[in-house]
């Protein structure tokens, strides 16, 4: 589910569901959350690196479990998505991503909580929220405009289009794009430079950096949670998940047309 390795005060967390493209089910959300809690409390850990196994960094939330949530047969984990995002938002030590492959959903919006992002030149991201009939998540409605500006963030968050590694660097979503074989060596080279510093200094430096955000992250997440409450399980979301299961493109125009068609019974 998740592999943990320590080297020179750097803790590497490797998402390990390659058959599911490292998609986050409740078990992986819980395991990652617990790993972040442990790393934050461990005085021997100065820096954390998150990467993935196989050809994906993470395909985001497991759509099978999303469909189960809509059907009422879903069992929440101990921490789940909200708990993991809580830990990302308050993680006190430098957090680095080594994005080895595709990142969708939380596999992309996690960028907003990272202090440094390295991407394989083969990697690409997608924020697929509008293609799933839902809304942005994980405070990305705040973090992405803060990182890259409103118009660029609007395209990334609203288009559900793929964004390649080179474009992520150009936009400001990633620090560097490197050849696949160089991804972990280059990431760890930077991580070990940071890890050689005082942990107390790193923590306080990150604290003052994040302090400038104030309560903007919490406010963004509250707005996003309300949008998800309205949209999750709604007609567009059901059409998107049905289309995914049937291996076809969703027909949102038909959903929208049905929503705006007057109900003849309503007038009687």
Write structural notes for this entry.
The protein is α/β, with parallel strands linked by helices. The chain has a single domain (2-211), classed as 2-enoyl-CoA Hydratase, Chain A, domain 1. The chain is 48% helix and 16% strand. The chain has twelve helices and ten strands. Strands 1-2-3-5-7-10 form a six-stranded mixed sheet, with helices on both faces. Strands 4-6-8-9 form a four-stranded mixed sheet. Helix 1 (26-41) links the parallel strand 2 (10-15) and strand 3. Helix 1 (26-41) packs parallel to helix 3 (80-90). The protein starts with a strand and ends in an 8-residue tail after the last helix. 40% of the residues are buried.
The CATH superfamily appears as 2-enoyl-CoA Hydratase, Chain A, domain 1
CATH class wording: Alpha Beta
Return residue spans where pLDDT drops below 50 for at least 5 consecutive residues.
none
The number of domains is: 1
Strand content: 15-25%
Question: CA-to-CA gap between the ends?
Answer: 57 Å
Largest beta sheet: strand ordering:
1-2-3-5-7-10
What order do the helices and strands follow? EEHEEHHEEHEEHHEHEHHHHH
List the SSEs and their pairings.
Blueprint: E1 2-7, E2 10-15, H1 26-41, E3 47-52, E4 56-58, H2 63-71, H3 80-90, E5 95-99, E6 102-104, H4 106-109, E7 116-120, E8 124-126, H5 140-148, H6 150-159, E9 163-164, H7 165-171, E10 176-178, H8 183-195, H9 199-211, H10 216-231, H11 235-245, H12 252-260
Parallel strand pairs: 2-3, 3-5, 4-6, 5-7, 6-8, 7-10
Antiparallel strand pairs: 1-2, 8-9
Helix pairs in contact: 1-3, 5-6, 5-10
